[in-house]
Amino acid sequence: MHLKLTRIMIELAITRKLHGAGGAINLNLDVRIGTGDFVTVYGPSGAGKTSVLRMLAGLLTPNDGRIVCDRQIWFDKSKDINLRPQFRNLGMVFQEYSLFPNMTVQGNLEFALQKDQPKSRIDELLQLIELEQLRDKKPALLSGGQKQRVALARALVRQPNLLLLDEPLSALDTAMQIKLQDYILRVHRQYNLTTLMVSHDLNEVIKMSKRVLILEDGIIKKDGPPLEVLPLDNLKPFITGGLSR
Ligand SMILES: Nc1ncnc2c1ncn2[C@@H]1O[C@H](COP(=O)(O)OP(=O)(O)OP(=O)(O)O)[C@@H](O)[C@H]1O
């Protein structure tokens, strides 16, 4: 039998009590994500999806457990380890663009560059995400889709091991969403970048990811390929492009 061996990028075994408007939920996860995988977290509002990303990023502390990324311990309650966010090698893009308004596109990217990193990384990203024409523009002059492309490029400046995407396209119109999905897939493939995305959009989940974690009330209820685990009755009639597999 042929076994495909994938190196593990993320080991996440954590618990965290959350207090929402509808009462408390206990987030309780035990999941491994392989290097170069594209995984989506899908589930109802308040299930804990954003909290999962925030714990990976070091912005929310688990009550217990362990987070290991590329064999580096980011969090281990039993050993009292909790790596600060700036030392976790990941990139993040959220729904809000959060660019510096007084800096150009180039300036926003340079700001993310570490001292010892070559500036050629920025040129490479401007080219890959087709932002060269916009490099001297300030965010106020850009469309929502362009701003989100800059946010994506900025998240990649430090060559992260892991890309976290929290509904990054939900503020954009459908045509722009489809374009941006393609940019995200392009960088995912170019860098074999392990990517974890929160999305509410079934079409997007099917197009983008190989694996879906369905999160309900803080628990992974299903884990598998999109077409096997998603509630497809809710699907819009038109599915666009995507990963061929
Ligand atoms: N720091 C925190 N401490 C305690 N509870 C929190 C904290 N942050 C969020 N919560 C609560 O945890 C619950 C889950 O929130 P979270 O944002 O992770 O859900 P979500 O699945 O991403 O929801 P949505 O799809 O609406 O964004 C919510 O009820 C929220 O109020």
TrEMBL record:
PROSITE patterns noted in UniProt: ABC_TRANSPORTER_1, ABC_TRANSPORTER_2
Transmembrane stretches, start-end: none
InterPro entries according to UniProt: AAA+_ATPase (IPR003593), ABC_SmlMolc_Importer (IPR050093), ABC_transporter-like_ATP-bd (IPR003439), ABC_transporter-like_CS (IPR017871), P-loop_NTPase (IPR027417)
Domain ABC transporter: 3-242
Keywords: ATP-binding, Cell inner membrane, Cell membrane, Membrane, Nucleotide-binding, Translocase, Transport
GO MF annotation terms: ATP binding; ATP hydrolysis activity
Listed name of the protein: Molybdate transport system ATP-binding protein
Organism: Chryseolinea serpens
